[in-house]
Amino acid sequence: MQGLQQEKAMNTEIYKESQVVHTPTFIDGHSVEIPILKILKEDGTVYSGAELPEIDQVKATKVYKALAFHRVLDERMVAAQRQGRVSFYMAALGEEAASVGGAAGLEDQDMIMAQYREQGALIYRGFSLENLMNQMFSNEKDLGKGRQMPIHYGSSELNYMTISSPLGTQIPQAAGYAYGQKLQGKDAVTICYFGEGAASEGDFHAGLNMAAVHRAPVIFFCRNNGYAISTPSDEQYVGNGIASRGVGYGIKTIRIDGNDILAVLKATQTARSYALAEQKPVIIEAMSYRLGAHSTSDDPSGYRTKEEEEKWHMHDPILRMKNWMLAQKWWDETQETELYEKLREQVLAAVKVAEKIDKPPVEDLVTDVYDQVPAHLQKQLDELKVHIKKYPEAYPFTAGRIK
Amino acid sequence: MQGLQQEKAMNTEIYKESQVVHTPTFIDGHSVEIPILKILKEDGTVYSGAELPEIDQVKATKVYKALAFHRVLDERMVAAQRQGRVSFYMAALGEEAASVGGAAGLEDQDMIMAQYREQGALIYRGFSLENLMNQMFSNEKDLGKGRQMPIHYGSSELNYMTISSPLGTQIPQAAGYAYGQKLQGKDAVTICYFGEGAASEGDFHAGLNMAAVHRAPVIFFCRNNGYAISTPSDEQYVGNGIASRGVGYGIKTIRIDGNDILAVLKATQTARSYALAEQKPVIIEAMSYRLGAHSTSDDPSGYRTKEEEEKWHMHDPILRMKNWMLAQKWWDETQETELYEKLREQVLAAVKVAEKIDKPPVEDLVTDVYDQVPAHLQKQLDELKVHIKKYPEAYPFTAGRIK
Amino acid sequence: MAQMNLLQAINNALDIVMAENDSALCFGEDVGHFGGVFRATSGLQEKYGKARCFNTPLVEQGIIGFANGLAAQGSTPIAEIQFADYIFPAFDQIVNESAKFRYRSGNEFNVGKLTIRTPYGGGIAGGLYHSQSPEAYFAHTPGLKIVVPRNPYQAKGLLLASIRDDNPVVFFEPKRLYRASVGEVPVEDYQLPLGKADIMQTGTDITLLAWGAQLEIVEKAADKASADGISCEIIDLRTILPWDVDTVANSVRKTGRLLVSQEAPLTAGFASEIAATIQQECFLHLESPIERVCGFDTPYPLSLEKEYVADHLKIYEAIKRSINY
Amino acid sequence: MAQMNLLQAINNALDIVMAENDSALCFGEDVGHFGGVFRATSGLQEKYGKARCFNTPLVEQGIIGFANGLAAQGSTPIAEIQFADYIFPAFDQIVNESAKFRYRSGNEFNVGKLTIRTPYGGGIAGGLYHSQSPEAYFAHTPGLKIVVPRNPYQAKGLLLASIRDDNPVVFFEPKRLYRASVGEVPVEDYQLPLGKADIMQTGTDITLLAWGAQLEIVEKAADKASADGISCEIIDLRTILPWDVDTVANSVRKTGRLLVSQEAPLTAGFASEIAATIQQECFLHLESPIERVCGFDTPYPLSLEKEYVADHLKIYEAIKRSINY
Ligand SMILES: Cc1ncc(C[n+]2csc(CCOP(=O)(O)OP(=O)(O)O)c2C)c(N)n1
Ligand SMILES: Cc1ncc(C[n+]2csc(CCOP(=O)(O)OP(=O)(O)O)c2C)c(N)n1
Ligand SMILES: [Mg+2]
Ligand SMILES: [Mg+2]
């Protein structure tokens, strides 16, 4: 595999070893060629000579079902938000392959530290529909105890770090997490997802450099979907994408077609072996496009054209995988219809259950600030309870349950 | 001039235009060759075929005298600190060419935003010995009103931004400063100095990317002197120096021999014309070595060998320039001896004057927090004055002067 | 006069400044073509060009660093931080740089022309990271001014004053009121003074003090109290730093009681500074302890938001507690 | 027992933890081979290897981000920020991440094992950027613990407790005392409780409260006051967050007077929180206003440092003011 042999260490005594010139000679964004890995064509056939990832029918079916689930969930939840049933949602329309394929390229013990548009990875890991719903309805069964906005999932059991809204903060954290895995000799890596927008944060620079210097087995997975809310990527950076930054950090870097599930899988599998064997970070830049709105609070017609969006509908990663599955004879149209019907029903039913579940009890206001509830918080809680009893109608979610 | 033609814009629609591969292909720190510009040899001769900077005898003499002054000032002030006459000092031994040569490559209207080891640029601009001393003795004639530690110089008149201790903060500021110059149509650029250590800060990433995206005419000048206090550069980064990061930002970048005054001058002059003509940033990485201690509070014997330091004594930038000046017949040994003698005397005399000048008056405690002294600070000051009158012996610097 | 909501008032102030001052710039994440996620800068790029109103890369420390540089250079940067919850990556640039620029240089340089606008506050089901009121984090920083308007009229007048003030100002905009608060706003240019509190309602029994969106809640509590015959004096602090001690102290000397309410958590919030100062200024006049009605000492929750916030009922109870002490 | 200075006590605590806990790591700028610019981590790399004690690149937000990740993973990171003045680039990682990690995840994840050590404070001719006492900036942040020792004995006992405490702790070390404060320190392992103030001296006329290096100054003032026949009770707060309200309130109920002194500027400092809380807790017991003797509301100056600081004479005057009120 080209580029993956044990590399020679970067010589930092450059002063004496560089090529010497006597007229000013500049490098710039064009100084490095960045190829893009593609394995699967739109029609479901594979490029000739392409190196396939490790995948069999069982795994492929699991991946495909996760993609379908993801698509249906997004569709339904965007609708549910419009109906006012849930307050907020973020879809990943058109870029589901990045998160699902990334998770599929890993082992269950690997830590996933995501940004927020990677529910696909959590779905692939097996987070239940109920758990997803409970989070979005911030009810008392939410693992996160109803404290964060919808889509801020997390599961310790599934090694999926709870989402945090501030962008980029997970990047140096992932470096640290992976360093800890290495130090404790774990057969595990960390994958860290972020958008091309978040890659502008100072924490990006911090995290990548620290991982490189301290050789943390972390896969930095950039979803370059062309937009950060309304800001197109050419107002985000003027270099050659995010991949070109790998050169500066001395990190092995690969650019892939993010809508090509096999390329995502191949790159992640390769990156994982490398990160684990060499105890070093890897960067994957997956080129894609955010087909939907940024979130349910956003309306892209304010900043881009329908024509632009149209072009990208052709690159649908799920359709592309479906074509491959059909060509492999691992899937057929009957299964397809059944799957989608079943999924739609399940999701709708789950919404109806989750929205009726109680909000968390008032005690959850003060737990988990510290490992134990300190005296001043206990006092604040006690006073609140007395207050709620006095004005029960003002606090309908909790009043009925105060002892 | 190679690499300086009007470049084509970086294509951000990479998805469709990159070279396509079907097996994982990585780039890394080795993917770009970074040549190093050298013009002047150690013996004072010029490399054959070297393109010289714009420099004549008058300018060369000015540069050389600034270098000598810098060397003597550092020497004397390190000694003064040992004698307890000044509280702190930072020398730039062995890397004076970076700051003096940088300033010499600019015009007076260009803004200099330095880190702290670039007194050479201020000296070249003509900051008086008295002003330097008044700052270091934090007396009432210090332009900075005695508020910052020694070596935190600044001069609005000379377009030299007052030094700030927090590292890296001047980098995005320089991008903004230069953007303002551009917006107002000024014939001026900003130069921003920083160390290879400071280049690890998040502000570095922020500043370079913002300058690139918003096309600010700023020269990012990295002094790569191999150390950040005790931390050698190979524990600071594992890429190919700081220059390799230019690729990722899409910024024209040049690496130079930082101890070669002609290379510094040439690179800065070239960078300035480019920045102004194209209204774009440039990165210069000057390779050098911090021959002295980090500061007078530091003792490098705790983290590096005398042998390592020895190697670098050979690369003395001032000696190299002297050899060139002698070869040009623009300088002779008598002038040399006289210059150094005179400088030593002047500096010693200036110390004696500055250390006797009064500390700033107590009113300076509360001015410049805001444009005007607000009521609460006036009250704090008034109370303090009453207090000082009660205990004059406890506040010897100000007690005598309170009305 | 025109009817404007708070966003329109902000937009109008920015428009006036951009028109009168060639060196004024508005920038931040999504601020350009799109006009900001709340649309506060709507139309400005069209009117004044991309060079003066633009999107920045997604990096708050860079936005403020860039703004500091522009201000030092003599331009008039008006930087937007998309949510106050995301101002912390810029904390160093604000607290160590903006605030100390003039002092450390002996006035050789300053960033007095800097204004930082940012939407703050809760009550919008935003959870931990779209609800914070971080004014107190900045209030411990000499060199900064901190301003919070409560309605469209103030928003325009205080923003114009903040931009023209020769000190760095952090301007917190109550996002819950962006569209909800509508009122008469003069179309012409005007300024409201910084550093001056506003006595919204005079009263004799207790002084109620707050800023920004919290005043709406305080007014509601005062109404409820007045039904009990309690006469409340309501003061809008408007400027958090430097704050108007005299107006507050004079009021408390008259009423003998003070209640301060803030959205932010109780501990080490700005209400604490006010209580600390007023207990000293008005020691002999205080008839009951100064009450602070604040957010819980927890991160800002989502589903228990109602329980968490300093609502009018909690304030009302505290008023009675104070009166009956 | 052994004679140790404050640095040695810190180093000794780190040594104990590194020996007992394989997953404990010490890192930060120059922390590795060199042992830190103050030498607090001296010898640890030699003893425990480069993997567990190392230099980081020069990036505070990275250091704390990395530490957050390590803590979430189950390691025990002890991160050093070279000077507290340089902690602000990491403010977001501390305030938005460390502090909220457990809460936001419903305890699915936490960074309880995180400890951040950093030298703070003035009196060393350090000017604006080597003198700050930023504890109050963090005190408005539920989820954090904040600890400040005043001498070698405390430094060791409180640091050991902080590292082992299952919450993120910011541990401020009084750098003026690093070598100046020397005392008897048990060689064996021991802990001092977090969240508990220490009554250093009992007295009847006034309670003097401070933390860290400021206590040396407070003691000096108390001595001077005692020559005038004023009996001072001196309390060392030790933990700023969550703080020991009861010990302070009980003392003030007894003495009737409180003076709080801090190095940091007056406005919105932690002394203000204490004053605000105690005026409420002890309203009927207070015989005079709570005095705050603090740094000026300016950046920390260099040549006028003596004038700026809350020295023993200013405290002494405030004691008298309080007594004679
Ligand atoms: C520190 C911070 N700043 C700003 C925001 C507001 N914000 C949320 S998402 C977003 C855009 C992110 O774009 P990108 O990283 O490309 O991810 P994408 O939405 O395209 O998946 C912004 C600006 C935030 N959450 N955190
Ligand atoms: C934000 C910040 N962190 C840490 C420091 C402490 N510090 C001062 S100089 C220095 C090393 C800087 O190294 P480099 O940038 O390479 O510059 P050099 O000293 O080599 O000229 C450090 C860590 C600081 N001043 N600011
Ligand atoms: Mg994006
Ligand atoms: Mg260096």
From TrEMBL, chains A, B:
InterPro entries: Alpha-ketoacid_DH_E1_comp, DH_E1, THDP-binding. Transmembrane segments: none annotated. Its EC number is 1.2.4.4. It catalyses: N(6)-[(R)-lipoyl]-L-lysyl-[protein] + 3-methyl-2-oxobutanoate + H(+) = N(6)-[(R)-S(8)-2-methylpropanoyldihydrolipoyl]-L-lysyl-[protein] + CO2. Keywords: Oxidoreductase, Thiamine pyrophosphate. It comes from the Bacteria. Residues 66-362 form the Dehydrogenase E1 component domain. Its cofactor is thiamine diphosphate. Belongs to the BCKDHA family. The branched-chain alpha-keto dehydrogenase complex catalyzes the overall conversion of alpha-keto acids to acyl-CoA and CO(2). It contains multiple copies of three enzymatic components: branched-chain alpha-keto acid decarboxylase (E1), lipoamide acyltransferase (E2) and lipoamide dehydrogenase (E3). This is 2-oxoisovalerate dehydrogenase subunit alpha. It comes from Thalassotalea profundi.
TrEMBL record, chains C, D:
SUPFAM superfamilies: Thiamin diphosphate-binding fold (THDP-binding) (SSF52518), TK C-terminal domain-like (SSF52922). It is an enzyme of class 1 (oxidoreductase). Its EC number is 1.2.4.4. Keywords: Oxidoreductase, Thiamine pyrophosphate. CDD domains: TPP_PYR_E1-PDHc-beta_like. The keyword DNA repair does not apply. Residues 4-180 form the Transketolase-like pyrimidine-binding domain. Its cofactor is thiamine diphosphate. This is 3-methyl-2-oxobutanoate dehydrogenase (2-methylpropanoyl-transferring). It comes from Thalassotalea profundi.
